[in-house]
Design goal:
- By secondary structure, this protein is of the alpha/beta class.
- It is 52% helix and 15% strand.
- It is built from eight helices and eight strands; from the N terminus they run βαβαααβαβαβββαβα.
- It starts with a strand and ends with a helix.
- The relative contact order is 0.17.
């Protein structure tokens, strides 16, 4: 079974995705990473994406679906996927659902629940390594990354920018989560506890879901 990750920024979704992928042997599809890879390819799709990015435009939904379909076709048979960063709107969700059905792939969403207030607190106090881009929470007291890089505050981690991103999540992505919840394909995970506790809860709930779905 494939999984789709949802979570407000600051919920730890990116950290938990690595644990989930490792545990269940999932191939990670991360939209930003796929765009960068394809833009360097000398293919028709690669050239199309490169032109869109260089023009400073957002990638249209139909092209996003083409990217996902291309990804699915190029992974080994019987490989389960962890989708991160897609779908982001109801329009994308409708086309994503259709593509998954066409590809005969079952999926469930994993939603990391966190309040807006806690998300803002985390995002305004976290720091990022200048070299490897690893994110560190406020509790991390050193001023350097494990790779030796200097820890800095991200330019877009200011209140105005953070609130815009959070509002976009609630306005555009929450309706998808509600729609999937009505179909009983959403696994909710409390993202407030420490990382280890969130991981433990996530694994337990995903395993329970898989047992029920089998």
């Amino acid at each position: 079974m494939d999984f789709v990750l949802f979570g407000i920024q600051g919920s730890g979704k990116g950290t938990q995705s690595k644990f989930l992928a490792e545990k269940f042997n999932l191939k990670i599809f991360e939209m930003g990473g796929q765009l960068r890879i394809l833009a360097q390819e000398d293919s028709e799709l690669g050239k199309k994406i490169k032109n869109i990015i260089e023009a400073g435009h957002l990638v249209p939904t139909d092209v996003v679906m083409e990217i996902i379909e291309n990804f699915i076709k190029n992974i080994p048979e019987n490989t389960d996927v962890l989708f991160d960063g897609i779908p982001r709107s109801l329009e994308q969700a409708e086309q994503f659902n259709a593509l998954m059905e066409k590809s005969n792939r079952q999926f469930a969403g994993v939603y990391f629940e966190l309040s807006k207030e806690e998300a803002i607190r985390r995002l305004t106090t976290r720091r990022m390594c200048k070299i490897c881009k690893t994110i560190y929470p406020a509790a991390y007291m050193n001023n350097t990354c494990t790779c030796g890089g200097e820890l800095i505050t991200r330019a877009d981690d200011n209140i105005a920018s953070i609130e815009n991103r959070i509002n976009a999540f609630f306005n555009e992505t929450m309706p998808i989560i509600s729609a999937y919840e009505s179909k009983n394909i959403i696994i909710k995970v409390d993202a407030l506890p420490p990382i280890e506790k969130v991981t433990e809860s996530m694994m337990e709930k995903v395993e329970m879901f898989l047992v029920k779905s089998s």
